[in-house]
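Collaborator request log, item 7. Partner lab (contact: R.S.) asked for a structural prediction of Ribosome-binding factor A to inform their binding assays.
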Amino acid sequence: MESKRQQKYAKLIQKELGDIFQKEAKPLVGRAMVTITRVMMSPDLGFAKAYLSFLMADSKTLFDSINDHKKEIRHALAKRIGKTVRVIPELAFFPDDSASYAQHMDKVISDLNIPPAPEEEEEEED
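Returned to partner:
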């Protein structure tokens, strides 16, 4: 379980990374929309796991491109939060596939062939 401090830093990094992808990283992401769905911080606040969700893009190609430019993204983050935090955390990006998992589960459930329940005959009480 994360401490309040970890949660506070995670929320700060999530907000700032979202702004970076929306405004500063346009050459990197193009027209695609990148959403930071979740950030998890290590206890020493030196490492951040960021989960990314993509719209209007080939997620595999864009994810690889973001991983290749991790250093530049961290530098942009340092410019934004450098005066607030002691250490700029190392970043690790992971694809957030919860939306695709939800779609898959919805399809599985809709494809189930569940027969209707048999009507129960009411017993007459004498």
